[in-house]
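Lecture 7 notes: from sequence to structure.
We start with the chain below.
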Amino acid sequence: MPQMHPIVPKEEDFEYVPAVISYQGSVKTIKIDESTQFEYDYFEGITITNSFNDIKDFLTIWQFLKSEGLILEVSKKISKADYEPYFEYKLISETKFGKAKAEKKLTVGAQNLEQTKYTKLDSPIFLPYADPDRIKDYRNYIDYYFEYNKANELICSQFIDKQIYGNSELDTFIKKGFRTLEQRSLFMSLLPAYLALVVAIVIPVFQQMFTDNSDLITIQNQLTQIQQTLADNPSPNITEIENLLQEILETSNTDSIDAQLEDILQEIKNMQQNQ
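Predicted structure tokens for the same chain:
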């Protein structure tokens, strides 16, 4: 029986061929349930959001409008586009692939390469060898990459199959300066306290400022008239109060007091416009 010897190729026996780009991993499949799944090809493009925080802010508004009965929430059929906002566009170095690549240092020496090529030295026939390094991952040549964020999907899970429609109350809410009836009523209930604070601050300051008691008496009378109006009528004529405050502003020359009165006056003007 003849003795068997391995056939060891020489340098000239190798053939140089072009590298092959592998696109494995460029398609992501999102499984919704046992019967529904969506496939996303990164090379076809994906519609993503610039900031997921904007989506969370919108969902907060959604919840508020729903709690106030300003929108109608109904079911809808989910589509492939509903899951695109949960993809993130990242630097390749910040992705799982990039981090794994950085940790794995591929340093193959000539000796290790030879050991990898000849795995069956007892075979009488040389087995053709394809260098695995000629298969190049496409992610080695890109700067950015898509990754699916499952946590973001879970945050939005209860909203994905829903859509909303505004009702007539929403139009009123917008016209009222985005204030609910309770908020507008709260301001009116606090208005006497605001004015009482102004009185407590204004009178001592005015007593030091004015040598002419007639000016002080005029301002005191105006503040007293406002307080009496509020005491007599829980839903006073806002225009009347606005006019009285405006008169006090025209009499006063103190910036700190004017600023407080201006704030109250502006709030009243806003309420008047939204009535």
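Points to note: Strands lie at 20-22, 27-31, 37-41, 71-75, 87-91, 135-137, 144-148, 162-166. The two ends are 109 Å apart (CA to CA).
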